[in-house]
Amino acid sequence: MRLVVQNDKSLGNGAVPVGHRRRTARRARVHGVMAVLVVAAIASGCARPGGPGTGAPPWAGGASGPTGMSGPGGGSEAAGAPPSRQPLEASSPAATANSQAKKFQSAHEARTARIAAARRWRLDSVPLTPPPPPAKKPEITTRDGFEVDGHEELGLPPVFTTVPTRDRVVFLTIDDGAEKDPTFLRMMDDLQVPYTAFLSNYLIKEDYGYFRRMQRSGVGLNNHTLHHPYLPALSYRRQQHEICGMQEVIEERYGKRPLLFRPPFGNYNRNSLRAAKSCGIEYVPLWNEEVFVDHWDYREWDRKIRPGDIVLSHFRGREDWKGTMPDMIRRFLNKVTADGYAVARLEDYL
Known about the structure:
By secondary structure, this protein is of the alpha/beta class. The chain has helices at 18-24, 93-120, 182-191, 201-204, 208-216, 236-254, 270-278, 325-338; strands spanning 3-4, 43-44, 159-160, 169-176, 196-199, 220-223, 268-269, 284-285, 289-291, 296-298, 310-314, 342-344. The radius of gyration is 22 Å and the shape is globular. It comes from Streptomyces chartreusis.
């Protein structure tokens, strides 16, 4: 049976980080060790950490933001083509002017709020605004080399690292649920940056309410198994218990059964995908980059972000990282914005 494994940088050779072990040893242990990699190991990145600087950032000089940056109200309103016939009840010039003034004021206020939020969270520049969700969703297929025996014939969920799109967007995904930082929730609400969470029950059960607040902000809560095991070492039935059991937890606690599943460490075999399908899973998104507080890792040899890339991070804090989740988000946004990418919601493209 074909085995597909990944290199989960946050967990080394399948072990939980030292700080994380101290917090969770009394609750659960991550089982299994990493198998030999069949995909290229992700190399480390070298972006400059975000944070306060001595120089004025690009948005400090005014409300327009960096050159080429889009945002609510960024740019003039396009006038529609004049009607061929006079409408029965034409608006008066005063009413039309008043409506346009309100539109301009609303757009200006939204733009001003985004600039203020970027300044408040010490970003290098204002995050770009993503385009509207596509009316026609892209066709998602399994990435070459990530398929299992009988993948297409069995109708197994596609495994992918990038969404096929020409939009200059990336998708932020955050795994496990170990760190529950309220400042992170405030930051993401303030900046209005979408992301998708993949949760494991043994880490979230001490505070289901934290992720309920996240869900109320529009965040999709998805499946990362009950106990974060190394799935290929388990039988089909045990894998099914891990995946379907987490489906039930999320449905019971949050009212919605997920369609997305990410296997722990990115490792899976045919039984993993069969079990996921039996539980109602339709997609298995992995990742093309991973962001930490102090660097990036890349799957591709040229270490470049591509349109539609899925970016991985984890719910971690100072016990595991050299910083906090807001520090990680700052590094993430500074990099993708500088490269000309907006952050979109993964579920909107599936």
